[in-house]
Each structure stands twice: as C-alpha cells, then as structure tokens.
Amino acid sequence: MKPTELRPAEILLERGDTIATAESLTGGAVCVRLVETEGISAILLGGIVSYTDEMKARMLGVDTTLLDEQGPVCGQVASQMAQGIARVTGAVHTVSTTGVAGPGPADGHEQGTVWIGREDGRAFGFTFPGTRAEVSESTVIAAVHLLADLELPADLAKFLTAEETWR
C-alpha cells in the first residue's frame, strides 16, 4: 500500500467519529484497507458483506421492490446500503459499494459500473476501466476517500459519472 492511500483512514482516525462499511462489489476489501491503519479499532465498528440481494435486504434493509425493479447496481441501492449499515452499527459515517467488477457485464451493466453510497444519502457512480482486480482496487480507494469526505484522487475522479442524493 502506498503511504498516500493511508491518508484517508488516518484522517478519519484523527476526527474520531465512528465508521462502518457495507460491501458487495468489494467483498470486504474496504474494511480490510481501513484495518491496515494502526489504531483504527478506536473508530471502526465493523462491516457487512452483502453479496446477494437477499442479504442486502435482510441485513441492511434495502428495499426489496427497489432491488426487484432496479437491481443491485444503482445509486439508490448504494445509498440504502450505507444508511442500513449506519442503523445496524450506530456508526456516524458509513460507506457502501455495489457494482460490476467483471469479468464482463452483469445485471444489465457493463464491467466497471460502480456505485458508492454514504450515510448522508449521497451516491457516486463510476465507470472504472480495467480487470476485475483493477475495478475492485479503484473502488476501494474511491470508497475510503468518500468515507473521509476527501477529494478523489485525479486518476479516479475522471471516472465519476454521476452523483445522486437519496433520503
């Protein structure tokens, strides 16, 4: 890991607000990235990997009608996932990831289609290029920056395609 990648987690730690993650696309990698920061246990409450729609609904409270009609790859699902993990854990700040890492398209979306949600109802859409591993890594870096409410690195910001707010 590059030292610049630790910066968001270190900033979160300095702020002292509790955090949690809800992950699908990244399969727990955002939480793992946070755990690499010494002392993070002071603020990281935990995370849920909700890879299936059933788990998104059951564990995080994502609306089943939304999942049936829109599928898991949309801003509103990302927002509901982040808000759900906030309810479950009581964390002040949360982040969620959902999308298609690949290989190839899924759920009617191209590989690299990613949504990252936050507890404040904001959702950020991206179209990241690359392999499954590259899409996942880009998503992890973007998610940690968004969790810390930091500007995205320029090499990732250029792939931001949408920003929505859901309450």
Note the topology.
Blueprint: H1 3-15, E1 19-23, H2 29-35, E2 44-49, H3 53-60, H4 64-70, H5 75-89, E3 93-99, E4 113-118, E5 122-127, H6 132-147, H7 154-157, E6 160-165
Parallel strand pairs: 1-2, 1-3
Antiparallel strand pairs: 3-4, 4-5, 5-6
Helix pairs in contact: 1-6, 2-6
Total helical elements: 7
The shape is globular
User: What is the distance, rounded to the nearest whole angstrom, between the alpha carbons of the first and last residues?
Assistant: 35 Å
Query: Would you list the SSEs in sequence order as H and E?
Result: HEHEHHHEEEHHE
Radius of gyration: 14 Å
Uncertain runs are 1-6
Largest sheet: spatial strand order: 2-1-3-4-5-6
Count of individual beta strands? 6
Question: Mean pLDDT across all residues, rounded?
Answer: 94
**Which bin fits the share of residues in helices?**
40-55%
- The SS-based structural class is alpha/beta
Report strand %: 15-25%
Main beta sheet, described?
6 strands, mixed
What's the quick description here?
This protein has 167 residues and is α/β, with parallel strands linked by helices.
Descriptive terms for the model:
6 strands; alpha/beta; 6-stranded mixed β-sheet; 42% helix; disordered N terminus; 167 residues
